[in-house]
Amino acid sequence: MFDYTTKENCLSNKTILVVGAGDGIGRQAALTYAQLGATVILLGKTVEKLENVYDEIVTNEGPEPAIIPLDLKGATKQNYIDMSATIANQFGKLDGALFNASMLGELTPYTHIHEQVWNDVIQVNLTAQHLMAQALIPTLLKAPSASLIFTSSTVGSQGRAFWGPYSVSKFATEGLMQVIADEYDESSLRVNAINPGATATPMRAKAYPAEDQSKLPTAEQIMPLYVYLMADDSKGVNGQVLKAQ
Ligand code: NDP
Questions:
Q1: Radius of gyration for the chain, computed over Cα atoms and rounded to the nearest angstrom
Q2: Which residue range(s) make up the domain with 136?
Q3: Ligand 1 atom closest to Cα of residue 104
Q4: Would you list the DSSP string of 25-49?
Q5: Is residue 9 part of a domain?
Q6: Which of 132, 142, 163, 239 meets the CB 3.0–4.6 Å disulfide criterion with 93?
Q7: What pLDDT score was predicted for residue 73?
Q8: In this structure, what CATH number is given to the domain that contains residue 177?
Q9: For the purposes of burial, counting CB atoms within 10 Å of the CB of 56, is it exposed (0-12), middle (13-18) or buried (19 or more)?
Q10: What is the tally of structural domains in the chain?
Q11: Ligand 1 centroid, distance to 215 Cα (angstroms)
Q12: Residue 226 resides in a domain
């Protein structure tokens, strides 16, 4: 695991947007950030899942979160601009954003990839991330030191048979992260990507249905890197793809 000892309250007074906060790694990141003092904005497509995370945070006496129900597949540039303005109005700034939501699509031979699946995966995993980043950067720059985190994968730096659009979207995610990181290198914003590695989640179960998930690290176990990159300890780290395990 990434070697970082989490400090109590290290995220207090921070407002952090977690995209894809209803399940898997994003759900755990939202709970962890709230436990460390952050006010978390929970964005995702299934409202009930977001409400469950909200309830868990409140039950654990974390700062009251906010919920933004949004499906990245259909969301428009204007939706993200409005969202950024609402966050700026309500919180004054955004200290961190974890771009974690992705879809796997279908694992198929390259010549069998459906055009619709290709388009959906590129829309959710790449174009939505780009539109969100564009809209959120002005609000992130209002914070004294902000962190934007993209999520890649091992297939984002080494192509793999049958992983078609998902793999391509993750290569592009790393490219997008590098472009923004280089452009904002002298600013208060740092931009990086996390490769979580194999982690027990619903997406992993879809990709590897025969696998015994009890042998994999849990989302909770991979949290040290997710906390490090949001905490002030990672100030100055920019343009990197870091492995959570
Ligand atoms: P899950 O599928 O378990 O969770 C993804 C979350 O993103 C869900 O809450 C889901 O919402 C949300 N989401 C998906 N599509 C959309 C959409 N169109 N609009 C809004 N929200 C959406 O994934 P993981 O937790 O496994 O993965 C998290 C990230 O880590 C992803 O970027 C993935 O590519 C990456 N990753 C994961 C690995 C693993 O082993 N788990 C390995 C390498 C990378 P809902 O539940 O409502 O559908």
A1: 17
A2: 15-243
A3: 34
A4: HHHHHHHHHHHTT-EEEEEES-HHH
A5: no
A6: 142
A7: 98
A8: 3.40.50.720
A9: middle
A10: 1
A11: 20
A12: yes
**Pocket-forming residues, ligand 1, beta carbon under 6 Å:** 20, 22-26, 44-46, 49, 71-73, 100-103, 124, 151, 153, 196, 198-199, 201-204
CA of 127 to the centre of ligand 1 (A): 16
pLDDT, average across residues 36-64: 98
The tokens describing 19, both together, are 């995209």
Confidence of residue 26 (pLDDT cuts 50, 70, 90): very high
* pLDDT, the chain, mean: 98
* Minimum-distance ligand 1 atom for the alpha carbon of 24: 25
Q: How far apart are CA 95 and CA 140, in angstroms?
A: 6
> Does the ipTM exceed 0.90?
yes
Given 33, 54, 80, 166, which residue is catalytic? Answer: 166
Token pair of 157, please? 């730096």
pLDDT in tens, 73-103: 999 999 999 999 999 999 999 999 999 999 9
Give percent of the chain with pLDDT exceeding 70. 100
